[in-house]
Amino acid sequence: MEQTVEAKLFFSTLAIALSQKGNNPTNLKIKASPKLMSIFLEVLTASKIYQEELKNLDASVESISVCLENKIKACNKFKEKTGVDWPI
User: In 3D, which of 1, 8, 57, 68 has the Cα closest to residue 32?
Assistant: First the structure.
């Protein structure tokens, strides 16, 4: 699947913003539709929750599996909408 025009614009804006010297990644302004931003935040959040669960010494195999399943679902949705594999 080829990237949508909106996805290309989104990732180009993100890459430029991250590459600018002195830019604080926590203070980025990215132009995208509300729907694309929602999908981006969903996959980013699922990835973060999964990573945190992996680091949790009290985590069970079941809790890690649930987080991984959620991350996979979010990654698939992201790829379906953008044509891009989620890299994280």
Answer: 8
